[in-house]
């Protein structure tokens, strides 16, 4: 019975680790014409504080000619919204950055309407990007991850979120430790019965 409770606890812990890897920036990629594309972003604040700034990154050699198309009005003031092209001479990724002019996005809330147009230098359809949620007063990164392709119905992601490799290692270490403890207890009980 104790072993069952132990495994239920382990499964709950693994689910928590996996769910913490969910992306909070979903996107759609629209082909405008030829190599000109547009990303449209929706952000979801899964933090415990208001989200006041976020950044998505555009890799050198894959993107160029970034231009802000739109942003919600409450994100256009303050630090504003800007797009900076990748710089191959450094090399440095380009980025799209939006800072709220007000208190930002409350925990648990979502907001769309962020769009950036760009020239895509790769083949096929542009894919996920790195993003950061930033504290606009301290510039500290609060959370980072990969954007997730939104479903065509707009109800959520269509691809599984990526799990941080360190979270996976921690989960596997926890599992192996619990299995060792369980086996040790089982062997100890068997020795007492003999």
What's the main sheet like? 5 strands, mixed
Structural class: alpha+beta
- Topology as H/E string? HEEEEHEEEEEEH
Dominant shape:
globular
- Mean pLDDT across all amino acids: 78
Tally of distinct domains: 2
> For the largest beta sheet, what order do the strands appear in spatially?
4-7-2-1-10
- Tally the helices: 3
What would the CATH topology of the largest domain be? Immunoglobulin-like
Tally of strands:
10
What is the name of the CATH architecture of the largest domain?
Sandwich
CATH class of the largest domain: Mainly Beta
* Proportion of residues in extended strands: 25-35%
Cα-atom radius of gyration: 22 Å
Uncertain residue segments = 1-21, 153-182
What this model shows, in words?
Helix 1 (2-19) runs antiparallel to helix 3 (165-193). Residues 1-21 and 153-182 have low confidence and may be disordered. The radius of gyration is 22 Å and the shape is globular. Strands 4-7-2-1-10 form a five-stranded mixed beta sheet, with no helix packed on it. With 194 residues, the protein is α+β, with helices and mostly antiparallel strands. It has helices at residues 2-19, 73-76, 165-193; strands at 25-33, 36-44, 53-58, 63-70, 80-84, 94-99, 110-120, 130-134, 141-146, 148-149. The chain has two domains: 23-160, Immunoglobulin-like (Sandwich); 163-194.
